Amino acid sequence: MVRLSFTPALALLLSLPLTVRAAPPATEPEKAAPPHQTWSFDGPLGQFDQKSLQRGFTVYSQVCSACHGMRSVTYNDLSGIGLSRQALTDLAHAKQVPGPPDSMGQPTMRPGLPDDHLRSPFPNEAAAAAMMGGVAPPDQSRLAAIHPHGADWLYAFLTGYHMPPPPGAPVVPGKFYNDWADGHLVGMPPPLMNGAVQFADGTPATVAQQARDVTTFLVWASDPHRTTRHRVGLYVFAYLSGLLVLAIAWKRKIWNRAKTRTTQDADD
Ligand code: HEC
Fold first, then answer.
1. Whole-model pTM?
2. Which keywords does this Swiss-Prot/TrEMBL entry list (predicted)?
3. Ligand 1: centre distance to CA 35 (Å)
4. Dist. CA 191 → ligand 1 center (Å)
5. Pick the CATH number of 50-226 from 1.10.3720.10, 2.102.10.10, 1.10.760.10, 1.10.8.60
6. What is the distance between the alpha carbons of residues 216 and 57, in angstroms, rounded to a whole number?
């Protein structure tokens, strides 16, 4: 029979996807989690340490912003780390940003305004890559949010450079050895140095301190309105708890009255 002779071929065909799939994928070595740090903003009730945020902004604006933009944050948002209206307006004003074209259609520049975003210092990604040996510095708006273990990883990464690299590590021109970079090599030179910035509050600017503060700032920057949201959440919670207490008191009162009446009815 014709039908029977097809059966072995059919069986072979059906088993094919199974055989092809059988080889297990080469298991990638599990990446170690960065050491856990204690952060002021940890947990649902965590609050950002404002002093640390301000020191972190100092590190961002004096070091990181030479290469990285932070487009999702405006100067106005910096009121969230405690900068006064005057201070953030002055900061914005000190920057020159592209303005509208003039009457001849030529590009112009204008002083920054509080509504402006923290721009990349490079005109575009290609220019940034060309200046930085092939890799553009990523925008820092969401850095803390996109990495698993965001804050812990950032801190480990910023303090994880080895100069010179450990013996036996691959040496690639234009790349730097870092314990926490992919393949241990990254195109960013170590950005932090002891004492490279000065903190207005007198805190000694060690590499570890700068890393901790700029990480705090980057976590804040990945969600600048989180503090306000938490505060509103707390108010709503307190209000609803108040309502609950009132509701219970009211229920008791009504039931007490009902009970008294029933007892009176029974006595009659
Ligand atoms: C001299 C320019 C320069 C400065 C200054 C600089 N960076 Fe970078 N950064 C780069 C470049 C270029 C890359 C992309 C490197 C790569 O992907 O190999 C990068 C990448 C990064 C990454 C991503 C790494 C990854 O693997 O995802 C982080 C995080 C980072 N920078 C943080 C910072 C912080 C924080 C500061 C300030 C303390 C800073 N950078 C200052 C040039 C710079």
1. 0.80
2. Heme, Iron, Membrane, Metal-binding, Signal, Transmembrane, Transmembrane helix
3. 20
4. 8
5. 1.10.760.10
6. 9
